[in-house]
Every structure is written in structure tokens, then in C-alpha cells.
Amino acid sequence: MNKKIIFFSTPAYGHIISSIPVVEKLVKEGYEVDYFSTKEYEDIVKNVGAKYLEYEVDFDVKKLEKYTSNFIELFKVLTETNHKAYKYYENKINYKEYDLIIYDSMCSFAKNIAYKKNKKSICIETTLAYNVFVFFFSNLFWNNIILFLKNMGKVIRLLKEEKLFRKKKELKKFKTIDLFVNSGDKTIVFSPKELQPFYWTFNKEFYFVGTTIKERLQTQKKKYKSYKYFISVGSVYKANPEIVKEILKIKDLEKNSIAIVTNEKIKDIDTYDFVEQIAFLKNIEIFINHGGLNSVYEAIYLNKKQIIIPVQEEQRLTAIICKNKKIGIYTKKYKNISKKIKNVRKRTKNLDRYSKIIKSYDGTIIAYNIIDKYIKEGE
User: Fold this and answer.
1) Cα(100)–Cα(123) distance, rounded to whole angstroms?
2) In whole angstroms, what is the distance from residue 365 CA to residue 369 CA?
3) In 10 A of CB 109, how many CB atoms?
4) Segment holding 331, helix H or strand E
5) From CA 17, how far away is CA 37, in angstroms rounded?
6) Which of 27, 59, 203, 366 lies at a CB distance of 3.0 to 4.6 Å from 55, suitable for a disulfide?
7) Does 4-210+361-376 carry CATH code 3.30.950.10?
8) pTM strictly above 0.85
9) Is 303:292 a contact under the CB 8 Å cutoff?
10) Predicted confidence (pLDDT) per residue in 134-170, tens digit
11) What kind and span of H or E run contains 109?
């Protein structure tokens, strides 16, 4: 009888495409994978041979758009969503038929279910990993300290609600670090350790496996025009007209040399609703992005110069890493781009080195081996 896995995803494009090559590998090796997501990603799941299951709770992360740059509000919305999901799925599914629960790091409800049902679990991190060291010695804490102080009452209330919820449900006791880390029995991080801050401070059950870009590169065959500049703000923000207004503040760049992924139509500029990003990146010179880890790593993998204009705190950390390692330029506003481009060669002088590092990892195979070994332990 085949081993069976249930996978709770965060239904956002960047999260899905990072892990889906691993799901495909699991299916090819004989595992049955039941994969929870939303209708938008049904075909992606079915195309790799997994069984698509549709979330029956409101898990539309696009509604988080206005909260992602405010950590307090983001935590509030995620907590509410995860509480609803836990209550709904705690007894909705027969977990006895599964050998493993895999869940995206934003799905704390799945971690709690695994604990309650005494099932093996693996957390998938499609962002950089956070612990106390990363939290206090990176930009996350200090950039938000005023926000924390202003919202101290709300923070305390949210913490109390989470502690009370766990107590009522007889779950593992809540720790403050759980705000940032939903680690499972094992945690797979789709990043090479060379680009993970303080990677040596994480416990031995954290695995920095690299990316799944190699497999995604093989599936993206579409041909696109060549451009000097390519602007992508991520699947969540492409529908935000305010972002487009910011983009139009860019000066001194020839409009006919720019391509943008957005739902908005812009005069004299080529716009796309969706592109196969790796295929698109092959024909551009400079990639201007929001600091999502997939976008940043794809640019490094393909040895493309990039300018990062982050929206969220985790994206700012990625941008700072790229700046410090001289593999990308970090700027806060689109109108600053023209000045930054003049120094792009100097500020990306280590790009070739880190491109080789990312290519040296096979995240799909490493992640698969960790999952396969863990499921078979104790047989």
C-alpha cells in the first residue's frame, strides 16, 4: 500500500511553485499526495499528479494585501484564519490514513492538528527562516519597534487570544517565537544556507535545501520579447493600482524598454497579466522586483542584475542581504531607480559567485530525500 501525505498549502503563487516540484517528485516515487489549495491553483496541483482538495474556509491570501506591510495586522488576520481552519479541519479529515502532514509555514493550524493527532509533520518555508537571532539582529524587530510600541495593547490582546485558544484545544503551549516560526518535526527551507542569516543558530531539524529553480526552469518553455527592464511586484500586488502609480514615477528610463506584470494597462508600456517568470527573465537585462524570495533567487540563478523595492519586512531582509553581499541593489522607492542603475555593475559584483552557489543545490531532491527518510523512520 502506498504511503500517503496530506499537504496544506498557502494559496499564493510564490508559495505554490516553490514546493510543487517536490510534490511531483513524491508522486513519481509512488507517494499519494492530497494537496489543499484554492481553485486558482487546481491545474498546477493536478498536473503533477497530486489529488487537488479545495479549501472550504476562506484562505484567500489576496485579501491580506493591505496587511502585509503591517506586521501587527498581518498577525491578526493570519491568527483568525488559522483558528477558523483548525476548528474546521480538526475532525473533518481522517488523519489515520495519512503517514505525514506537510504544511506551509503560514499554516499554523496544520502544525496544531499534527500535534493533536500525534502525526509526523514537516513545515515548508518558502521565505527565509526566522528565529530569535534573526528576529533581533535583522531589520524585522528594529524596523517595527515603533509599530510594536504603538500597538502594545493590541499585541498583548492577540497573544492572550492565541494562548487561550491553545489551552482550550489542549495544544502545545504558545511561545512568542511562534509568531514567526511554525516549525514542524522537521522544517525544510527553500534557501541555501549561504543566503540564510544566522543559519548556524537553527536546530538540527532545520534543513536549508536550496531552491527548486532547476526543475521549474525545465517546465517553462514559452518565448518572450527582449526588454532592458522587467518589473514584477508579485502575485499579491499586481492588482494594486497604487503600486502602478509608484512605478510611473520612474524617470529617465525609455518606456519602450520596460515590461511590467500588472493587471493595470499603462500607456506606451508593455504589460502582462501573467508570465512564466524564469522564461521571461532570460531575455532581460535588469530585473526590478519586490523582494519575494522566488524572484530574487531566480534572478541570481540566471545571473541577472536586480533592483529590489520591498513592501514587506521579510522582503526588506532579503533586499538587505542582497545589498550587503553585492548581488543586488536595495532601494525604497521607484523614483530612485535611475540613480541606482548607474552603479548596478559595481553593486552586483558578487553575482556570479552566488549564482554558482544557488546552482550547486538541488532543493527538490534534497527535500524529497528528507521527507522520504522521515516517513520510513521506525518501519
Assistant:
1) 11
2) 6
3) 24
4) none
5) 12
6) 59
7) no
8) yes
9) no
10) 877 776 655 666 666 676 777 778 778 888 888 888 8
11) helix 108-116
